[in-house]
Amino acid sequence: MANAMSRRNFVKLSGIAAAGLGGASILTACGGGSSSSDDSSIKVGLMGPYSGDVAQYGLAVRNGAQLYVKQLNDKGGINNKKIDLDTQDEKGDATEAKNVYDKMVEDGVVAIIGDVTSTPSIAVAQASVNDNMPLVSASATAADFIKYGKNAFRACITDPYQGKLMADFAAKQGYKTYGAIFNSGGDYEVGVKDAFVKEAKSKGLSSVADPQGYSAGDTDFKAQLTTIISGNPDCIFCPNYYQDDGKIVTQARQLGYKGVFLGADGWSNIVGGDQDYASAADLEGCYYDCSFTVNNDDEKVQQFIKDYKAEYNADPSNFCALGYDAAMVVMTAIEQVEKDGKYKPSDDDYKQAIIDAISSGSVDGVTGTIKYDGTGDPVKPTLVITFKDGKESVFDTIEAS
Amino acid sequence: MDQELNGGQERPYVTAKASKHGGGRKTLSTKKRYIINALLFVAMLAIGQGLIDGDFISRYQTTVIEQIGIYIIMAVSLNVATGYLGQLPLGHAGFMSVGGYSCAIFIIRMMPVFDLNMRSFVTGEPMAVVLFVVGVLFGGLMAGLSGLIIGIPALRLKGDYLAIITLGFAEIIRVVMLNIDGVVGFELTGGAKGLTGIPSYTNFLNTFIVVGIVLFLIHTMMKSRHGRAILAIRDNEIAAEATGVNTTYYKTLAFVVSAFFAGVGGALYAGCIGVMAPAKFGFMKSIEILVMVVLGGMGSMLGSVLSATVLTILPEALRAFADYRMVVYAVVLILVMIFRPQGLLGTYDFSMGDFLEKLINGELFRGKSKQKSEEVEANA
Question: Could you tell me which residue ranges the Leucine-binding protein domain spans (chain A) (predicted)?
């Protein structure tokens, strides 16, 4: 190339650029005033994927959590201390998540809201045990997330719980046979499907065909669906994310399947958008379980939706609501610890006190009342949502058993 | 073995250079060069560990430094196949995952046998150290083995075709990791949910000891007869074959060595992160490593080391810019490729021995003789 530089010039130039960048980043860091918790503020970490493949979930959780903290700070914060949210992107990558975690510990956060997706969450959970860092995830549904220590909590229900719940629901509805189609490369899909199959068996439902797996990124599901539909099941369990679910439902209808589809909380958002699949007619009479829907008439939920719209000019999703609740769980616990006033945020005991406050407390979140009975799993109600004329509505509320 | 192979190799070069500058030039013997380098390396390790123990380097920085070490291994090992052998394999992440999974599974399975727990690796019990060494070697060997299986058919192809077949094999590895549990009938890799609960057996010291060993082994291999044969194949495969180089053998050798060290890097990675998920070792991971090699300059070990360092630090250093950091990362890559298409260092490599020789002969700041091109200087 004609304008290629010599090595020497290039090294010189990049040296100058690097020095400039380094200087700028140091300035930004100082300018940001990112000091650790002190008398006027309490520092809390918020991590998630804000860029990359799963950014949509991270951003939704971030919006929800930031909204709660903003409302709290507008009311004067906790004990006259502002909450200083240290928000960091981890790109949905376990390596980055661990880096972010280490950085947050170093910056002196007293608790972390995060992580969002399963694998990075587990990486963070494993690393956090030694620090006894309170960890509240809005959406880490993988069972292992809370396995490593008593410091990890989640605001959402787990994959296995959802599978079991939907199998119980199917039995209650009187379905006798089922088929299942799932993304075999997703931990979420596989986790929900496994639990569904297990519970369905114990409830006496029979499977018309082996659960049919597809690969992430597939758009044609007709081969799997044909296998399932040839057995003519009462219901098809389809615990995937909504982009896939929408196509699956439409393709099944094209193949002449008239029965019911059951889904899990990946289905939220399936209605709306400019898609040419998952029409109102296709979705009629299907069910999925979820913690949150905008069509819930509950007063608290409607207030949250109003606040969220005022802030972001959009409808909140399931993940936004969970982010809001996760922030609520953390802040309520901090409030409790501050009220007791026994420890300073810089103490290690402060973290333990937050953990104790979370496990013994109970919060009235927008996804229902959340409390923890000695585990990191929430005890909270779950909504079963159905579709009528292209509108979602709450079919049933299943209390935690 | 390496010493023996290497013993006679550097001398002719040194004398050739010495004669050019006249008889009075002082030279360093190969042995002395190695001793100096080893001492410097140990000193660097000691300083690094001292800074960490003294809390001058925080835990966050230590984690990033460990990752730098791991990516140095990844980039340098890929450099064997791309820079030295001149092929374009796109499946390096596949070998990394094989190494990582094998090492992690091996160590997790062996822990109860030797009565170790997660903390044993942090406190550094002797048995844990032994397990670490065996585990990392096992990871490397498994990756090397898969490199052999893939290399034999793949290296019959050239250029784009090789790139595509290695890409395909890496995908096969990923899908195997995803689905093997169902085939073997018990939990091995953990499938889509990933392998969790890996003890954190990676730390600054053992990562960089491994980095040192890897750099040394690759360096000596490239200086040896085998390395020269590999370079000959890169420069002109037909000519190399005509002079009696067994091209199939050497191509496979370089490929397997590259895979072996990728496995070692993967093994360290598993211990550093504590979670392995197949989705992390897709096409993009291979590209990420390839970018490091290309950016540093194909065929330059120092280039790979530098660019692995820069590209690992960059996303972290730019954290202050929040959402714009990935844009900056991309812009840096584009600028380098426009203004410096041969990579940061081209094929230049730094040699401590040559540097010292120049220093003791007082040639360092004398006017640079321009008749030698950078490329000749490079292979010193």
Answer: 41-385
